[in-house]
Design brief:
Elements (H helix, E strand, L loop, with lengths): L31 H5 L6 H55 L1
Amino acid sequence: MKQIEFFHIENPCKNICINGEKGLCIGCFRTREERQHWKDLDDFTKKQITRACVMRKRRFELIKKKTSTQTIEITQLDIFDEGKDEVQDEDEDQNQTN
């Protein structure tokens, strides 16, 4: 049973309208079909789409956060690896002088 909405459901468009890798708009996280048919949908369906968009955005931000954390870790490992090479060079120098 559909619930009657007392308030108008606003269009979640952010005026970016560029598809990301998965076919979702990078501004509002709607599919192309959801964007094209928005004006023809009833309020119940619009509310469902809006909720789905919120979940899609959260998932995207979580993945983005995990990816940026991994990048930082890789950068840190590179820094430590360079220092490790210098320590090995110093050890080799000490062995040659002895």
